[in-house]
Amino acid sequence: MSGDRCLPQHHIQDDPTFPHPLVVCPKTKPCGYREAMSLGNKYVRLNVGGMLFFTPLQVLTRQNSLLKAMFSGKKEVFTDKEGWILIDRSGKHFNSILNYLREGTVTLPKGRQAVQELLAEAKYYRIQGLVELCQNTLQDNKEQPMCVIPVITSCKEEEQLIQSSSKPVVKLLYNRSNNKYSYTSNSDDNLLKNIELFDRLSLSFNSRVLFFKDVIGDEICCWSFYGQGRKLAEVCCTSIVYATEKKQTK
């Protein structure tokens, strides 16, 4: 990183490895932004959400932004007792902000959430070019669903899907609108638990097993297992009773 550095508080000193000489305020007389400018200080000390940065003034004022307004005297700045200029934002992506101001471009962080976080910071600092870069990246790289679960609506469609699959098949039938049965007090809870279990399994094993849902059968909740094009097992799971024969619990 050229020209800026995140430094631990109370340990600022001249650093011979730094590419430019650091201008350090004496500990006995902390200097704020205006004093530093009067001394010809070309570096600015920033405390961004608890993270400390040294960066050249020319970087902060290079592009039209909130930072340029702050460090060209158009907007009031606040310093702590040690002379660090306070910015009440997260410092997590501030290096990316500085790099963009310096170079006019930046390598965006990995992951959609991280880019969204950087976008929020770019909007706060009013850096339009970085805002557009983040927005275009998010638009071009929309996350794809982890897996797609077919929903069967006809017996013919179900048969074709099972016969054409080279993988084992798991089918979950759920049909809460079926009024052939009377529901117990726990029926809906049991149905939701089965749906949640099916969703977890499909996310974990979709590369090895074909999962699909059926909403046309006579049962309320039923798991079916297929291999080599034929049904191997079936389990019905919802707690219901037959409306005509109350003693039989399914």
TrEMBL record:
Q: Which residues form the BTB domain?
A: 42-110
Q: Output this protein's name.
A: BTB/POZ domain-containing adapter for CUL3-mediated RhoA degradation protein 2
Q: Does the keyword Membrane apply?
A: no
Where is this gene product found? Cytoplasm; Endosome; Nucleus
Family recorded in the similarity comment: Belongs to the BACURD family.
Q: Which organism is it from?
A: Ilyodon furcidens (goldbreast splitfin)
Q: Does the keyword Cytoplasm apply?
A: yes
**Key words, A-Z:** Cytoplasm, Endosome, Nucleus, Ubl conjugation pathway
